[in-house]
Write a structure and sequence with these properties.
Distance between the termini: 17 Å
Number of strands: 9
Helix content: 40-55%
Strand content: 15-25%
Bound molecules: iron/sulfur cluster
Order of helices and strands: HEHHHHHEEEEEEHHEEHH
Number of helices: 10
Structural class: alpha+beta
């Protein structure tokens, strides 16, 4: 287990929470339990799927922003992945990666925003951990930037969804209400107080022979944040009770969500065979 994971589950209790664990708890208590205490790491399958391609885009944008919006730096990082390609890789995606980065640069190079410097470091692809509600919460922020005198957190989303016109309206509706955008807004306010403005969803859709880009600001009012705070308090209380309990309930409505639950092969066995 990594240091973070060891600290996260010290003494059989979850000590560091994040958007994934709050969401898992709300979808299905058993999912949260399996994820945290039984099988913390699911097998990673080789090859470049959509998820891995998304991570590569994130990594190239990290190089881009760290170098002050340099396409050269983004290409250099992309080149690292092309060199690593092998028989299992999706080579067309790699070729499209350079085009995607070039189009991204053309679209956003004049954005009036600068990457934030936080604790003497450029704020790009950064893990943040903060105390809240008597425990700790963590998040991986893709980017924080100053924009018109205020700070905003930018979350890159690589998606296959249509992000133009009515498609964009439907797509961005997914992010409010949403546990991650709620939690990042709370974290932004704790970190930067009134200097924090909003969360920006930076949607990127790789396409054959091009790419689509669209951005959307997510804002929560104080009363919405109060609702989320109360929800999180309830999750923390229930999780504490559940950790000390013999019975782990489940919600069958969670099993098929988002194309199916990763833990289904475990739940198909009786409780004594799941550990
Ligand atoms: S398969 Fe269903 S019951 Fe099992 S953890 Fe997932 S959501 Fe819960």
């Amino acid at each position: 287990m990594s240091d973070v994971k060891e600290r996260k589950f010290k003494g059989g209790q979850q000590h560091i929470w994040d958007a994934t664990s709050i969401s898992a708890f709300l979808i299905c208590e058993r999912k949260w339990h399996l994820m945290n205490f039984v099988r913390p790491d699911l097998p990673v399958y080789p090859g470049v799927g959509r998820k891995e391609y998304g991570s590569i885009v994130h990594d190239c944008l990290d190089a881009y922003y760290r170098a002050g919006g340099s396409l050269k730096a983004a290409f250099k990082r992309a080149g690292k992945y092309v060199e690593l390609k092998d028989g299992r890789s999706n080579v067309r995606s790699y070729e499209g990666l350079f085009l995607l980065l070039a189009l991204y640069h053309v679209k956003y190079r004049h954005e009036p925003a600068t990457t934030l410097i936080h604790d003497g470091e450029l704020f790009s692809e950064k893990r943040i951990e903060i105390p809240w509600l008597g425990t700790r919460f963590s998040g991986y922020f893709d980017l924080a930037e100053t924009h018109q005198g205020k700070i905003r957190i930018v979350d890159h989303k690589v998606t296959s969804a249509d992000i133009t016109g009515a498609g964009a309206m439907r797509y961005f509706q997914l992010f409010k209400p949403d546990i991650q955008t709620y939690l990042y807004t709370v974290m932004g306010r704790i970190l930067w107080g009134d200097d924090f403005d909003c969360l920006v969803i930076n949607a990127i859709r790789p396409m054959s022979g091009g790419a689509q880009f669209s951005r959307h600001e997510v804002r929560y009012t104080p009363s919405e944040l109060e609702e989320f705070t109360n929800l999180t308090r309830r999750v923390l209380r229930a999780a504490e009770t559940l950790t000390n309990s013999e019975v782990i309930p489940y919600r069958p409505t969670g099993c098929g969500l988002y194309g199916g639950c990763d833990y289904l092969p475990i739940c198909q066995f009786p409780p004594e065979a799941r550990g």
